[in-house]
Design a protein that fits this description.
Layout lengths: L2 E6 L1 E7 L4 E9 L2 E4 L2 E10 L2 E10 L2 E8 L5 E7 L5
C-alpha cells in the first residue's frame, strides 16, 4: 500500500537536448539519495493558475509519486511505496 508523504524533496533532473527529454536522475529524501532506475507515467493538471506536473518513478523496489509545482518550482514527494515494508 502506498504511504502518503507530502514532504518537500530535492530532485536531480537531467535534460537530454538530443532526445529532447527530461529524466529524473535522483531523489533526495531524509538525507538519502535514491537513484532513479525507471521513469513511468507523467501527467499534468491545472490548480488555479499553476501547472502541476506529476511523475511516477522507481528506485530499485521503491516507487515514488513526485509532484512539481510549475509556478514555484517546488518538488513534493506525494506518495512512496516500498513492498519490503509491510
Amino acid at each position: 500500500m502506498a504511504e502518503k508523504i507530502g514532504e518537500p524533496v530535492s530532485v536531480s533532473l537531467v535534460f537530454d537536448h538530443k532526445r529532447r527529454k527530461s529524466l529524473i536522475a535522483g531523489v533526495y529524501w531524509h538525507n538519502r539519495r535514491y537513484n532513479i532506475t525507471k521513469q513511468g507515467m507523467h501527467h499534468t493538471y491545472r490548480q488555479g493558475s499553476s501547472m502541476i506536473h506529476v511523475f511516477s518513478v522507481t528506485a530499485d523496489a521503491i516507487s515514488f509519486r513526485l509532484v512539481l509545482d510549475g509556478s514555484s518550482l517546488i518538488w513534493t514527494l506525494d506518495e512512496a511505496y516500498d513492498p519490503n515494508l509491510k
